[in-house]
Write a structure and sequence with these properties.
Helix 1 packs parallel to helix 2 and helix 2 runs antiparallel to helix 4. The chain is globular. The protein has a five-stranded antiparallel β-sheet, with helices on one face. It has four helices and five strands; from the N terminus they run H-H-H-E-E-E-E-H-E. The protein folds into two domains: 67 residues, no CATH class; 57 residues, DNA packaging chaperone protein FI, C-terminal beta-strand domain (Ribosomal Protein L9, domain 1, 3-Layer(aba) Sandwich). The chain is an alpha+beta fold and 126 residues long.
């Protein structure tokens, strides 16, 4: 996708998610943001509910399936930063959030984000 196409898609998703479209940054930044927002929209964690669905019903369904609240860490993959990054990630071994990663440091992100970052040359898969 071109930067213009990514920007247009981010603006569409911002409207759906009820957010301001932050279209600043490099193409890699925009690709990462796009992957995160699309993943958020696809997994239903966008905070939007259908008219007949309440948050409690969503949580009850989740607990009925036996899923833990920390299910996100299972879907994460470890990657190694090639460059300094500002990310929304988890520490490699603990479930602590990480905002900045130096080159050579290992951290965890979703598989979708990891693939996008690896394709852009920002990280290497572990």
């Amino acid at each position: 996708m071109t930067k213009e196409e990514i920007t247009a898609r981010l603006q569409e998703l911002a409207a759906v998610l009820g957010r301001d479209a932050d279209i600043s940054g490099s193409k890699a930044d925009l690709e990462q943001r796009l992957a995160e927002w699309e993943e958020e929209l696809s997994d239903g964690s966008d905070g939007l509910y259908k008219d007949d669905e309440e948050p409690q019903q969503k949580n009850e369904t989740r607990s009925e399936r036996g899923e833990s609240e920390n299910q996100n860490s299972v879907d994460m993959v470890m990657v190694k930063a090639v460059v300094m990054l500002h990310v929304n990630a988890l520490h490699a071994t603990r479930d602590n959030p990480v905002a900045f990663v130096r080159p050579g440091e290992v951290f965890r992100v979703s598989a979708v984000v990891a693939a996008s970052m690896a394709e852009s040359g920002l990280v290497k898969m572990c």
